[in-house]
Amino acid sequence: MADRLFELTTHELHDLLKSKQVSAVEVAQNFIERIDAVDGKVRSFVTTTPELALEQAKAIDEAIAKGEKLGALAGIPGAIKDNMNTRGILTTCSSKILYNYKPVYDATVVQKLGEAGALTVGKTNLDEFAMGSSCENSGFFPTHNPWNLDKVPGGSSGGSAAAVAADECAFSLGSDTGGSIRQPASFCGVVGLKPTYGRVSRYGLIAFASSLDQIGPITKDVTDSALVFNAIAGKDPCDTTSLDIETPDFTKALRDDVKGLKIGVPKEFYGQGTDPDVEKAVKDVINMLAGLGAEYKEISMSSVNYGLPVYYIIAPAECSSNLARFDGVRYGLRSKGSTDTIAMYEKTREEGFGAEVKQRIMIGTYALSAGYYDAYYLKAQKVRTMLRMDFEKAFEEFDVIITPTSPSVAFGIGALADDPYAMKLADVCTIPANLAGIPAISIPCGFKNGLPIGLQIIAKGLDEETLFRVAYTIEQHTQWHKKKPNL
Amino acid sequence: MNRDIYPLFPIPCSLTMIEYEPVIGMEVHVELQTESKMFCGCKVDFGGDPNTRCCPVCLGLPGSLPVVNGRAIEYMAKAAIALDCSITPQSIFHRKNYYYPDLPKNYQISQYDNPLGVDGYVEITVGGITKKIAVRRVHMEEDTGKLIHVEGNFSHVDYNRSGVPLMEIVTMNPPPPGYDQIQSADEAREYLQRLRQILLYLGVSDCKMEEGSMRCEPNISIRPKGQEKFGTKTEIKNLNSFRSVYLGVEYELKRQEKLLREGGTVVQETRRWDDSRGMTASMRTKEVEQEYRYFPEPDLVPMRFESDWIENLRSSLPELPMAKRDRFISQYGIAEVDAEVLVDSLDLANLFDNTAKHTKDPKAVANWITGEFLRLINATGTAISDTKLTSKHICGMIDIIENGTINRNIAKTVFEDMFNTGKQADQIVEEKGLKQVTDTGAIEAAVDKVIADCPNEVERFKAGEERLVGFFVGKVMKETQGKANPGVVNKLLKEKLG
Questions:
Q1: Mean pLDDT across the stretch B153-172?
Q2: What share of chain B in percent tops pLDDT 70?
Q3: Which residue range forms the structural domain that includes residue B384?
Q4: Average pLDDT, chain B
Q5: Which one-letter DSSP state was computed for residue A69?
Q6: In this predicted model, what pLDDT tens digit does every residue of B17-62 receive, in sequence order?
Q7: How many angstroms separate the CA of residue A212 from the nearest CA in chain B?
Q8: Edge-to-edge, what's the strand order for the sheet holding B295-296?
Q9: Of A112, A130, A132, which Cα lies nearest the Cα of A120?
């Protein structure tokens, strides 16, 4: 068994460590070898940190030897999306503008993983500054889908999802602004949770759109999702938008029980533009849940249709301001040869940012300009409120809403390069949960042409427990999460 | 027209002459004296080695987030209440986006259409006329770093000041009914001084213009009297003292009027005050409004102010300068001019208040403090808070004047000694033997000696030159080293000279 530890889930590894069948150093070594073996093909990582992982593993082994109590993540190798600060370790946002940036502090989530004893095996690739749905917008290189290396892993947390799917780590952290955890989780056949806005501290997450960004776990199964979420959730005094509420033990919600569960199935998430095979796979699961005692009903949520345009006003507006600090003055790239400050700003940003980032900065700058603010940003915020209210209304009647995570399975690398609108449609099902600030999870629910299909469960704000319960129930009655890509 | 404003431009007599009226708006920034910065725990202090009081938040490092300093909010709310503003029940921060190297995030967290306080006033008195200058808003923001220009093509940036809590106070032009706007350089300076006084009383800022903890940027325009539309305005920067505020505003008003009278037009621009040359010069023209792309700060949640909180703050405010002045006049019966001087600084006002309430003669206390005490303060360059002199000293001295132990002349010496040594008046009198001579015999001897020494003056006095009595008193005082009781001297002189 010891030679394929990397195939195990977090909770399986924990059991082995706890019963001293393996040491943390063995686990770390095993994953490091796995990364060496497959990352040349998958390219999940911008930076790998084998020395750090081994050093952390040694400390865990010492703790085990001393008979200390072993936390759920102690000695478990995890990967961190490269837009979260890691002290002294390159944190690039997959952007040339931060190609050399080593933060002086850890993000709160990184600190929490450290306190939980998790090992850090590396920093994963993303669409530059988390803007994109395929990982092709990385300023360095694209990541490949472990199920088919010619396909994209999704994005923006493509590296984090691919690393879990390729068994390069037991779990990873992603960030989700419009679907950036769930869509790649769906494309890579793993579990991705976007928590309620405010559940997880954003301190140290390099902001894309502050009012939408939320960090969450990407894992091999639902149990692992709850375990990692337990470790990273909670109020952070450094983030005033983090919620001051108690974090329950989410593993307690892992019950095979959907009796009486009320499922809403909004037609706006299906039909036109959705791959019929994807739709069928999702509806098969809904029927299965009905067979287990749940009830479902088709509904309409018309405001969902405005999700995409609203998102493409608010997210760029916030990003145009958030990314203003990358100017060559203090850190990161500074282009050479400028004779004045303005020229230095312009040249640095021209060379440092990729096309997608520039486009969003320009759209956002425009949307916030005097004379346009009311028509764009303010209007978008009003529609956002409507959308949130629509969800609140739906959740008066239903416990969860179930939709496809993405209208399609993973597309080919380069296939949508000339069709930016089609690319943005990949997020149409995931964006509404970000706009409403509510939790959603993507779990595997089938395959098409050897590529995973993802199912999304959405719940009302702070009701991650119901998400976990429904996702866990589905997992108990299906085998999709146990499939492995052939690398 | 207020002639004081235009002394250098005598206006030719003409029935068709246009009279101009100034409109002055004041934007004042005040750094708060909190322990830590507006959005992080870094220490707030003037100076320090560059970039030693910084952290990821005030350096705007990627991923850092602001956390509001509750004390700063409290300070600003106090100031807003003291300026009679209403507190906005739900106030939010906005981002003000612009690029400058001293602004580490390239946006400033500030307030826009939802400031903390609105609709207040500052009372000023110039030339005996009291006005309520309308304040439009009091809002919170963070300070920027500082650029330090070095040789060559580079500048250095010091971010120690970055994120220091900054309060912005803006006047309202035109003012609402019952309120006024600033219309002269005198009023501009007075407005600032009054504002400073209030903030010092509240203890929310040290308001040092030279160190930049209080900064003011007046905008100035003139318009034909009676015209409602504002003229084109200019903004003045680099005013680092009350004096330069006065001079800068005065200069700019004259410059604009001269320009208009000569048929020119005022250009909307920012002008820099040059203290050494005593003039303003164009810095940059602002043809279009700056585009700051304000939007609500998504990293901070809205602030809600409960009315209980506001009322608690209101009742915790100290007595403010104008109220104190009025109380001093009514409670102690002192002159308004003295009361004004006394309330100018809280330390001075407290010294007076604590002394006056323990004596029967508050007017004498006021005279001692506004006269001898301030003279010594100025002559020695001592801060009022650092003096050895307490109300106990002054009370003790007044007591021994009243009971005849010393006379007023000797008291001046005693006062200076108390000021310098911190010893009590009776101790000084004892040590130096300054006790007043009331012994008629001793004084009589001195009177006799003076009469004998000055036969000519005695003759002239007797011939009716009565003002010579002062001469005799002086002589007698000299004979007794100033210690003779003046009442006894007068009485004896009257008897002996008939």
A1: 94
A2: 95
A3: 319-432
A4: 90
A5: P
A6: 789 999 999 999 999 999 999 999 999 987 789 999 999 999 999 9
A7: 9
A8: B107-110, B94-97, B295-296
A9: A112
Q: Is the peptide bond before A309 cis (omega within 30 degrees of 0)?
A: no
User: A212: closest CA among A459, A432, A465, A462?
Assistant: A432
B450 and B393 inside one domain: no
On the question of a cis peptide bond just before residue A156, with omega within 30 degrees of 0, the verdict is yes
**Integer Cα distance of A193 and A218 in angstroms:** 7
Show residues of chain A in contact with B60, CB under 8 Å: 325, 330
B189 shares a domain with B50? yes
In chain A, the domains with their CATH numbers are 2-259 (3.90.1300.10), 306-378 (no CATH)
What pLDDT sits at residue A172?
Answer: 98
Same domain as B473, residue B391: no
Q: How far apart are CA A196 and CA A176, in angstroms?
A: 11
Residues in B closer than 8 angstroms to A197, CB to CB, are none
CATH code for position B477: 1.10.10.410
Secondary structure element (H or E) that encloses residue B9, with its range: none
Domain boundary among B392, B414, B432: B432
Q: CB B443: neighbour CB atoms within 10 A?
A: 22
Mutate to test the interface with B, among A93, A325, A334 (most CBs of B within 10 A): A325
| Predicted local distance difference test score (pLDDT) of residue A367 | 96
Sheet of B20-31: strands edge to edge?
Answer: B86-87, B117-126, B129-142, B165-171, B20-31, B214-224, B234-237, B269-274, B279-285
With an 8 Å Cβ cutoff, is A417 touching chain B? no
**Contact of A90 with A125, CB cutoff 8 Å:** no
Tokens of A152: 């994209």
B469-479 and B440-453 are packed helices; what angle lies between their axes, rounded to 10 degrees? 120
What proportion of chain A, given as a percentage, has pLDDT over 70?
Answer: 100
Q: How far is CA B305 from CA B37, B73, B302, B343, in A?
A: 21, 10, 10, 32
Instruction: With CB atoms and an 8 Å threshold, state whether B61 touches A91.
Output: no
Give dist(CA A149, CA B90) in Å, integer: 53
Beta bridge partners of B216: B28
Give, in order, the Cα–Cα distances in Å from B393 to each of B355, B373, B378, B380, B420.
9, 12, 19, 19, 12
- Cα–Cα distance, B141 to A74 (Å, whole number): 43
Which residues of A form the catalytic set? 81, 156, 180
Give me the phi and psi of B139, to 5 degrees please.
-130, 165
B303/B418 same-domain check: no
Q: Within this chain, do residues B324 and B416 fall inside the same structural domain, yes or no?
A: yes
Contact between A90 and A46 (Cβ < 8 Å): yes
Residue B3 has pLDDT above 70, yes or no: no
The residue from B388, B408, B432 where one domain ends is B432
Nearest partner of A465 among A258, A252, A272, judged by Cα:
A252
Find the CB nearest A370 among B66, B104, B291.
B291
Rg for chain A, CA atoms, rounded: 21
pLDDT tens, B442-469? 888 888 888 888 888 888 888 888 888 8
**Proportion of chain A in helix, strand, coil states, percent, rounded to 5:** 45, 15, 40
Contacts of B66 in chain A (CB under 8 A): 240
Could B65 and A240 be called an inter-chain contact, meaning their C-beta atoms sit closer than 8 Å? yes
Distance CA B217, CA A81 (A): 46
* Cβ atoms of residues A106 and A206 within 8 Å: no
Residues B77 and B38 in one domain: yes
B158 and B297 both lie in a single domain: yes
Into how many domains does chain B fold? 3
Rounded Cα distance between A457 and B146, Å, is 51
Side chain identity at residue B389, one-letter code: L
Distance between CA atoms of B311 and B314, rounded to whole angstroms? Answer: 5
Tell whether B286 and B363 lie within a shared domain.
no
Average pLDDT over residues A32-43: 98
